[in-house]
């Protein structure tokens, strides 16, 4: 089943800035799809259209078979932003509880969900801390836990690890891969990093700028079980080279 | 303890000491005119006589700290709060400070309600945003002393006299910082958090309650401190044209007619102490609330 489909999707911002032009794409359930490309290629805009944070000016998008607005109203997706976006006056637990409370869940269910997602992102024991008491990586993990809390099938992630250093980033990539394998969620993941895209994805969407469009969709042949060492394998390097070459062509 | 003393007490004490030294020095030339006027024409006045006279006059141009302290101590008694009168006026400073405090608090409360309501209207309605703000700013360019008698005259036929018009006059000054601070605060919420709330399909009211209001508090509290001080100024000014016989402002006016400078200064000092106490106690409330809300306070370090 297709979780996200886009047909002839276009978006022109006021002032005639064409952020997306004729994007056709289909994402199947359980896929991990990375969007990569230089700034201005529309990868974040595409994610925001799926999330109904931007309205397309042409074409059609379906999210879990619904319009983006309907999908948002039904809370069909969890969204992780570039910054952790935690409310500073709420504890980690309080932050994770927030979307659940908006959905009117009862206290016991909330406490259970909070405990289970904190465990998933290895933050158990940090629930009563305030965001500023955590490191950047921990804050981003708390943000991911919050997106997982209401158990939506679809996870939208906009460069969630972009602001973190490489050591933390590698570790979080590894954790994210584990999470995806165990929860079987569909993930749309925006990134600037070629190794990150190749390491995580089943499918890599390479985009090019002005106007933002899909340059090529590359299927990743790597097996789902990927230890960190996979990054030195010839298969990995071949996929990375293909992504790099496509990016270079798109720039010309 | 010693470190704390040298860090926080010493600088303040140094400044206070310097002010007192300058004060006593300045009093000698400022009060000397009277000394020479009162002395016989051919009198020789030595420096020590000059000093002792300028520091102990009954109606000096510049009253000295010890005279003011003595006057405050004399007037700030509890025993005559409600009873003893002098030439038709109650004498106790505590009584008059209480009168002024009550209209200050009323004015501050009214100003808070008006200010917050206006800023909500400004933030949530585009028409209000475009139309109200210029009037709010214009309102503050009109001197309060000109508005005050009009407010009293307008309110009297409605049966509103005494505390109410004074509160309204005080409100006229105190609502302004609230409108400015709260409007800024309500617009200060992080765009990412606004988007985040939208992805959870939160209603406008939920977004207001859970995101915008808490984001506005760090702007509202400093605005409330300024507003408190402004409310006190408004309350004192309100007592001038209202024919009030009680309150620090009314007393100030009476003493200034009689050029009784020492009691005047005692009133001024009382007003300053009152303002200081109000702002400090409000600051304590703010810190407690910030802690409760988990806002980071100075001195705490991230792990």
Would you give an account of this structure?
The complex is a heterodimer of chains A (252) and B (303). Chain A has 252 residues and is α/β, with parallel strands linked by helices. Chain A folds into two domains: 2-76 and 152-243, P-loop containing nucleotide triphosphate hydrolases (Rossmann fold, 3-Layer(aba) Sandwich); 86-151, no CATH class. Helix content of chain A is 38%, strand content 25%. Chain A is built from eight helices and nine strands. In chain A, the strands form two sheets. Chain A has a six-stranded mixed β-sheet, with helices on both faces. A three-stranded antiparallel β-sheet of chain A has the order 2-1-4, with helices on one face. In chain A, strand 6 (154-158), helix 6 and strand 7 (186-191) form a beta-alpha-beta unit. In chain A, helix 3 (92-102) runs parallel beside helix 5 and helix 7 packs across helix 8 (234-251). Chain A is globular. Chain A starts with a strand and ends with a helix. The model of chain A has no long low-confidence stretch (mean pLDDT 87). By secondary structure, chain B is mainly α. Chain B folds into two domains: 2-62, no CATH class; 85-293, Orthogonal Bundle (MetI-like fold). Helix content of chain B is 75%, strand content 1%. Chain B contains eleven helices and two strands. Chain B has a two-stranded antiparallel sheet. In chain B, strand 1 and strand 2 (89-90) form a beta hairpin. In chain B, helix 5 packs across helix 7, helix 6 packs across helix 7 and helix 7 (163-186) packs antiparallel against helix 9 (204-238). The radius of gyration of chain B is 25 Å and the shape is globular. Chain B starts with a helix and ends in a 10-residue tail after the last helix. Mean pLDDT of chain B is 85; it is low at 297-303. The A-B interface holds A 51-53, 72-73, 75, 77-79, 81-83, 85, 87-91, 98-99, 102-103, 130, 132-135 and B 190, 192-193, 195-196, 198-202, 206, 210-211, 214, 293-296, 302-303.
């Amino acid at each position: 089943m297709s979780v996200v489909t886009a047909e002839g999707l276009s978006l022109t911002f006021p002032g005639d800035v064409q952020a997306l032009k004729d994007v056709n794409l289909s994402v199947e359930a359980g896929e991990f799809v990375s969007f990569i490309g230089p700034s201005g290629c529309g990868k974040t805009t595409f994610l925001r259209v799926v999330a109904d944070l931007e309205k397309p000016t042409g074409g059609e998008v379906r999210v879990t078979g619904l319009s983006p607005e309907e999908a948002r109203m039904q809370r069909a997706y969890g969204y992780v932003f570039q910054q952790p976006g935690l409310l500073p006056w709420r504890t980690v637990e309080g932050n994770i509880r927030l979307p659940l409370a908006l959905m009117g869940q009862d206290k016991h269910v909330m406490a259970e969900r909070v405990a289970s997602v904190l465990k998933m992102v290895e933050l158990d024991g940090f629930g009563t801390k305030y965001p500023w008491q955590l490191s950047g990586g921990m804050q981003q993990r708390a943000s991911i836990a919050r997106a997982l809390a209401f158990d939506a099938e679809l996870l939208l992630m906009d460069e969630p690890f972009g602001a973190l250093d490489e050591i933390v980033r590698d570790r979080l990539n590894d954790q994210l891969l584990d999470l995806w394998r165990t929860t079987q969620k569909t993930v749309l993941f925006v990134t600037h990093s070629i190794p990150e895209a190749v390491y995580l994805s089943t499918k890599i969407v390479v985009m090019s700028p002005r106007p933002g469009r899909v340059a090529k969709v590359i299927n990743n042949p790597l097996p789902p079980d990927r230890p960190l060492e996979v990054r030195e394998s010839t298969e990995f390097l071949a996929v990375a080279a293909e992504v790099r070459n496509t990016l270079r062509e798109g720039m010309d | 303890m010693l470190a704390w003393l040298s860090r926080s007490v010493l600088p303040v004490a140094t400044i206070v000491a310097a002010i007192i030294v300058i004060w006593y020095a300045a009093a000698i030339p400022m009060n000397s005119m009277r000394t020479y006027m009162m002395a016989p024409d051919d009198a020789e006045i030595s420096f020590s006589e000059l000093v002792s006279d300028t520091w102990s006059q009954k109606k000096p141009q510049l009253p000295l700290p010890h005279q003011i302290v003595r006057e405050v101590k004399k007037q700030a008694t509890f025993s005559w709060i409600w009873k003893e009168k002098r030439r038709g006026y109650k004498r106790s400073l505590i009584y008059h400070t209480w009168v002024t405090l009550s209209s200050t608090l009323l004015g501050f409360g009214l100003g808070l309600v008006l200010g917050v309501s206006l800023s909500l209207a400004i933030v949530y309605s585009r028409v209000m945003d475009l139309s109200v703000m210029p009037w709010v700013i214009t309102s503050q360019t009109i001197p309060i002393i000109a508005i005050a008698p009009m407010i009293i005259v307008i309110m009297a036929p409605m049966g509103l006299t005494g505390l109410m018009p004074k509160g309204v006059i005080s409100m006229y000054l105190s609502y302004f910082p609230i409108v400015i601070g709260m409007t800024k605060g309500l617009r200060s919420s992080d765009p990412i958090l606004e988007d985040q709330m939208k992805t959870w399909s939160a209603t406008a009211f939920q977004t207001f309650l859970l995101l915008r209001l808490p984001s506005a508090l760090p702007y509202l509290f400093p605005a409330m401190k300024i507003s408190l001080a402004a409310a006190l100024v408004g309350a004192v000014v309100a007592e001038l044209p209202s024919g009030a016989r009680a309150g620090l402002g009314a007393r100030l006016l009476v003493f200034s007619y009689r050029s009784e400078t020492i009691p005047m200064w005692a009133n001024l000092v009382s007003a300053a102490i009152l303002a200081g106490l109000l702002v400090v106690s409000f600051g304590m409330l703010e810190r407690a609330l910030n802690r409760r809300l988990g806002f980071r306070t100075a001195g705490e370090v991230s792990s």
